[in-house]
Structure formats: structure tokens, C-alpha cells
Known about the structure:
Elements (H helix, E strand, L loop, with lengths): L1 E5 L5 H10 L4 E6 L2 E5 L5 H13 L3 E5 L10 E4 L10 H7 L4 H12 L5 H10 L7 H9 L7 H10 L3 E9 H11 L3 E10 L2 E7 L5 H15 L6 E5 L5 H5 L3 E5 L3 H6 L2 E3 L13
Parallel strand pairs: 5-6, 5-9, 6-7, 9-10, 10-11
Antiparallel strand pairs: 1-3, 1-4, 2-3, 7-8
Amino acid sequence: MNLILQGTSTDRATIERIAAMAEAKNIVAIHGNAYRCEDISYSDQLKERIEAESLDAELDAAFVPPNLALSDFKLVAMDMDSTLITIECIDEIADMQGLKPQVAAITEAAMRGEIEFRESLTRRVALLEGLDASALQRVYDERLQLSMGAEPMLAAVKAAGLKTLLVSGGFTFFTDRMKTRLGLDVTHSNVLEIIDGKLTGRVVNGIVDAEEKKATVERTCAALGISPAEAIVMGDGANDLQMMGIAGMSVAFRAKPIVRAQADVALNFVGLDGILSLFE
């Protein structure tokens, strides 16, 4: 296996120290802050040691097979809130009602896997009842920002011929705009019910929970004539684990501990474009 070490800044001595721990045969500079440590005898125990050491050094560490190419994959599937974008949209919508602390607490518990997502979404959306729908546009205009590295990552995957899927437990108001803004191929999320310009506190046409996210990845792969093993799936919360579990590569981005522990790759420090360093 190869070990990829990268950070927002890197110290060569630290890279060499961690590479020595892994008994790497060679170190190759990929770019300024990313290095490939080659020909490592992989074990779960080594992975645990290297990840702990890297975390202390504020480096992201990933073990990948040699000669892995981005073009080996055909689809990148992404969660939206706190993955492709920096905010949880529902928390910011709730802030317009003065209810951000209550809603954010439910969001956090759901992302940690402490509350079933379907129940958490129903409870959170109910608190938005009566809010003027114009609040959605305000959140988009004033608060929504792309995560670090999102645009270069998307440019690279498109150039390599991969399709893109945004599948979210959030809302179509935002995923539709992301699709247009970023040129995404497929999006799927929840529909907020709006009557007479006000949120009713309900979603319609079903809830995009963990099972539906997984099913969406499966449907998209089937439509493309590919296997889920040819998909890279990115997420941060417990409701992303099912779709990440069927992927050829699962990427935890700024993720909760339960998600980091189960993902193939965890990006805690670098941007979304950190995945590009994994490929030769």
C-alpha cells in the first residue's frame, strides 16, 4: 500500500518521521503539502498508529493501493450540508425563527447517530412552521458557502469523466441551486412544503434518510451502468454511513467520530480537493 500524508501546511521532518514509522521505502512529493509514502506493509494496527500520529501533527493520512487513478471511478456522490457546503441549512433557517440552538442540538445528535434521522428531521422541520419562505433565499445569499476545495475537486472529477450526485437530507431549495451553480449531474433531497408563502412545518414526497441516500446511489449507479464499487461517496454524518458503506471509496469530510471510524479516508484538515492527492 501507499500512505498519503497531507495537511494545510507540512513539515518535511514530520513527514519523514511518520513515513519511517510506516517503514516506507520511498517518499514522493505530490505537491507542496502532500506526500506519497510508498511500498508499505499494511496492517490495521499500523493504520491505527499512523492515524493517531498524523492527527496529532494535524495531517490527514490515507492508505491507498498503488497506481490508483481517479478514472478508475465513474461517480462522485456527496452529502451537501457540512460536506459540500460549510453550513447545516436547517440550522440557519431556524436562526431566522430564533430557534437555532434547539434545532442545532437535534441536528448534532442526529449526525452523531444518537437520534434516528427521520425522527430528527420531522422534529426540526416542525419548528419552522409559519416562517416566511423568503428566509430560504436569505440563507442561500447570506450564509451558504462552499467547503474548502469543493470547486477544484469538482473540476478535476469532471475532467476525469466522472458524473456527480448530490444527495442530501436537506432541501431541494438548496440542492437545485447547487446543481445549477456547480453543474452537477443529479441531485436528490427533501421538499419543504410551502403554502401561501409560508413553511408549513412539513416535508412532502417522503424523507431522504440514510436508506434513501443509499438507494439513490444505487439507482444512479444503475442508470449509469456501473457498480457502486466504482463510486466515491463523501459524507460527514451518521445518515451517510449506509451510502458510504456500498462505495468503492468512502470519504469522511470534517466528520463525526462514528463516520471517521468507518470511512476508507478521513479528511479532517485539508479541503475536499484532498481526495485528488490519493490518485496517481
